[in-house]
C-alpha cells in the first residue's frame, strides 16, 4: 500500500539518525509484515505480540499525528 510506504518513509527520513541498532532491526522486521497486518497495527486495530515492535509502531503512529 502506498499510504503505508509514505508513512514509513516519512518516519524513517525524520528519525533514522536517532534510531538505535535494535530499533533499526525492528523497523526492518516491520517492513516484512504483510500490508494488512501492518495497516491494522498502525491504526491500532491490533497489536504486535512483542513489546519492541509495539513501541516502535507507537512512535511511528505518534510521528504521523504530530507531523500532520
User: What is the CA–CA distance across the termini?
Assistant: 19 Å
Instruction: Give me the count of strands.
Output: 0
Mean pLDDT: 92
Beta-strand residue percentage: under 5%
Structural class: mainly alpha
What gross morphology would you assign? globular
Number of helices: 4
Order of helices and strands: HHHH
Determine the fraction of residues in helical runs and give it as a percent range.
Answer: over 70%
Task: Describe the overall structure.
There is one protein chain. With 68 residues, the protein is mainly α. It contains four helices and no strands. The protein has helices at 2-15, 21-31, 35-43, 51-67.
Give the structure's gist in a few sentences:
The protein is mainly alpha-helical. About 75% of the residues lie in helices and about 0% in strands.
Topology:
Elements: H1 2-15, H2 21-31, H3 35-43, H4 51-67
Key features?
4 helices; 68 residues; mainly alpha; globular
Amino acid at each position: 500500500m502506498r499510504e503505508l510506504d509514505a508513512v514509513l518513509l516519512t518516519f524513517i527520513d525524520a528519525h533514522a539518525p536517532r534510531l538505535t541498532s535494535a530499533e533499526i532491526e525492528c523497523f526492518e522486521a516491520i517492513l516484512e509484515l504483510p500490508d494488512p497486518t501492518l495497516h491494522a497495527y498502525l491504526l491500532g486495530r491490533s497489536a504486535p505480540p512483542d513489546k519492541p515492535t509495539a513501541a516502535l509502531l507507537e512512535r511511528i503512529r505518534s510521528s504521523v499525528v504530530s507531523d500532520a
